[in-house]
Amino acid sequence: MSKNLVIVESPAKAKTIEKFLGPDFKVESSFGHIRDLENVDRENKFIPTYVVSKDKKDVVTKLKKLAKQSEIVASILSKDGYETTSNVEEADLVLLNTCSIRDKAEQTVRKRLKKLNEIKKTSPDLKIGVLGCMAERVREKFFEEEKLVDLVVGPDAYRDLPKLVGEIQEGRNAVNVLLSKEETYHNIEPVRIGGNGVSAFVSITRGCDNMCTFCVVPFTRGRERSRDPQTIVDEIVNLNQKNFKEVTLLGQNVDSYLWYGGGLKKDFEKASDMAQASAIRFADLLKMVAEAVPNMRIRFSTSNPQDMADDVLHTIARYDNICDYIHLPVQSGSSKVLKAMNRGHNREEYIELIQRIRRIIPNCAISHDMIAGFPGETEKDHSETLSLMELVQYDFGYMFFYSERPNTFAARKLKDDIPLEVKKRRLSEIIEVQRKHSKNNLSKLIGKTFEVLVEGNSKKSELDLFGRTSQNAVVVFPKENFKPGDFVKVNIQNATSATLIGKAIT
What is the DSSP string of 41-91? Predict the structure, then answer.
């Protein structure tokens, strides 16, 4: 079983390093550097601050999602006697898990498949498959035309893997890309691959109904459906028994969670009166989880503003182990652009929601997603985005310039009419505003004391540990006798634009 993940820049070196490190390590290539030096804190031991490169933000997001999917796949196949290996030359089956349909990602997958097929020439029994969101799109190209794979499996068909693998072992190609109306992995306990042993992710919903014009998720993941709440609680209780200290509830739109016995969210109105009356919503689920594991921290991501109800906010405020942090994507500060994006809310409604959050959860940290240069965005629209950021003063954010996603409404119906240099300039201005607010917000915390969950050693020094506050702020402090998984009271003594620096108090 692979225990440790090592990321190197060079794909050529990855294979050699993996052989040297042995079976306890998985070595992957980032295909170049993934973060840049943002600044150096001259007043605090010249500690550097890094930021993920703009062109690698999708890579980082993808890796997080793939980790969760891979755990489910590993769990399913382990029941059929399969074990994971870090050496591809020892493998009987290689599966590439995909979560993007951008052309660049498709080309990367194609290159990987061609390299695997070179190995297959000397190991003819090796079987190769493609999993995930890209499966339907690549089926015709990789499976039928180029014959690069033996197996194509969509994101809802992982349960079918043992049968499909049996098909290819008997010399038949195998495909299942059907999307399900039900949550397909509700009773599968994922095999936790890698990770820090402190924090874990638990999926609670799949798919999405929102149909934002820039987003491809509804087409690749299907309509929204929720997981049985009891299976969620059981999985988290099991993680607690294994000494995990924090869990993040995952979904494309977690605050839209709705369990009424199974089925698509859109069919809720067709359910019986009893099913509707006894339905479990996100606030109910949060309460169930918080009470089931009172010694664990609870986080969730991602939220959609139109579905963030006050009962969720009151539940967060009521339970100390639910973190005071909400990731609340807005995408634009312009109501005109939000309408073109089909976001389901306007600027004023979003501001009202922010005000309710501040009132109900006074210490809540808020982060955002923002897109620069959406089709039709004017300089006035862009200025409204900047003014919204000045109003809210987010703690941090994820910022991108717009690029077309195939098959989305925006790609089909809207002209990508903003020049690339304008997109980059607007994005730079958004990043600069956010950097200012992040620095200011963190500076206000100097002198205060926070409970920090230790996640591991600091990347800068083996003498320091790092962890996060309930508000998701990163804190670095001297190691002393503390270890990952400890909850430590830390007094904040300094701050950069991305990190708090402090000292443990006893």
Answer: ETTTTTEEEEEE-GGGHHHHHHHHHHHHHHHHHHHHHHTTT----S-GGG-
